[in-house]
What does this fold into?
Amino acid sequence: MRTGYTLSGRYRIVRALGEGGMANVYLAHDLILDRDVSVKLLRLDLRDDPSTIRRFQREALAATELVNPNIVQVYDVGEENGMQYLVMEYVEGTDLKAYIKDHFPIAYQEVIQIMEQILSAVETAHEHNIIHRDLKPQNILIDQNRVAKITDFGIAVALSEHSLTQTNTVLGSVHYLSPEQARGGMATKKSDIYSLGIILYELLTGTVPFEGETAVSIALKHFQSEIPSVREIDPRIPQALENVVLQATSKRPEDRYESAASMADDLKTSLSPKRAGEVKFTPEQDDNGETKVLPLSALSSAAPVSAEAATQSDSAPETAADTAIKTKATGKKGRKKTRHPRRRKFLLAGLVVLLLVAGILIGMALFRPHMTSVPSVAGRTEAVAKSRLTDAYLTVGEVHKTSSSKVKVHRAVRTEPRSGTQLKRNTVVDLWISTGPKRYKLANYQGDAYASTAAKLEALGFTVHRESVHSTSVPAGKIMQQSVLAGKNVVPSRTDITFTVSTGSATVTLADLTNKTKAQAQRYATDHNLNLAYDYAYSSDVSKGRVIKQSPGEGAIVQEGDEVTLTLSRGTESESSSSVDQFSVNVKIPFDDGSSDSESSSDDADSSSSSSSSASSNLVQIYLKDQDHSLSSIYKQMTITADTNVTLPFTVASGKAGAYKVVRDGHVIASDSHVTKD
It folds into this structure.
């Protein structure tokens, strides 16, 4: 697509960003929202391929369901001239593959920070039953603020799609492919966790664990070979951090982390000094026919039996049959004489070996440190959790409080080290207790952009609704009111919030107001939210007090809140006194945002609530008394959003005085009953 082309009349192409097997990506500028975006356009040679179109549309569907600061946001989906396209957030930066190459070695703490962001995004996808299936550093972008964002859900599939074919299951990059995918099996959430473990391996070592000349040879290594130790490459890496890699990349899915969230929790504490004594993670092994060491009891029982057999063989009396045989076989006499001593030697040697092995095993059992496993206490009361740790010969350390949307209040969330970890007996284990769902303090969103505010709150778990209204004072797309007061602490997942959002001013097609009375013209202006201004002129054709002309004229299209000037008739010159004074008076009308009416309070919630109810505009009505006006009818009506100066024209008989009155939101705020020229 050429530079400068405007897609759907909105997205102007700036330059190409990259090309892929399915789509080309361009940098574009959104002409309506004035921002840079990425446009992914299905390649022309594939636009007639139904399967490719379905896959492309599947990416759009999957990505639009996900709202997370670490997932590239999809703004729009469309089609033009048979071409499918996606409009996405533009991330200015690089991908994680290039970032590792440019910044390796990366500090362990930064590795953990990057992985925590990636895990947060994957957890969001998994909560929506969406598996990425192609997690790799090339699909993870790092912006200029070092924020990681996952992109390319082109082969992500909802778990509810049971029609997935065998071919689809092996899509993805072979260096990060899970063993079950390499075998041609179905991808699961734990397949993504395996890929995350390989990404963590690459962040720590700067390389992938398996290389090969062909994709097949690499895939075979994923389900046949053990993951190389990261500590052999960098001995400074703590064992707890290596254990995260080992558990995430276990060959069997059931040995991996239950979720991305549990992997993130484990990774978060992997640099803690409290985990310095952690042993190397070893997954449970199935009985697959491999050679096993016999237990000590088997060896102990085997030794006496062998000895007894040897003794019986040596001391058994020789029978008559034996003597007859020996006499007949005189040629073999020499060998017969040596058979029993040789057998005795072999049996004695076997007995010695067995006794030595038994002794070694007994010594290892006696001197091996006593180990125990951290029990699972999640969901248990604090007392029960402590009791289980004590029963497992562990020492209960600090008890921390943490919010949790999944675990009830006063119940255990997790331990540190994690459950299942092998530790020496009497090791200190810390406990985390739930304080319930995390609460969020709402801000005052009046005047903020609805789109960004709604996206932020929805990412936190809020349910956001929108009500649109016209407004002459608030720009389109800005929030005017919110249903939940600012300052209120709420649980996001349990809270619905409705925003009243401005759509800007409505348009009005002006009617013919000529020959209307002033009162009739004012009613029309009020009904259509227009402001009126008046001029006066003598007329022999139009009765006194009626409209001679209007500006803009009949049929003109104006915005609500615009001003229309009407020229009113003073009648004929003979009907009016020729001796009049004409002058103007300037009046300042202060804007009231409502804060002056609220009581001061040191309470944050009260202050925020008062702020959220502040006025965004004032309705002002001005009354004049002079030769042309009466205080009983409105001279001018207007809406203000800030302090406003107005000029009031007076026409009074010489030596007489005029008067005015200013009403703001139903309250008289200024008046003068004696206004003169001097």
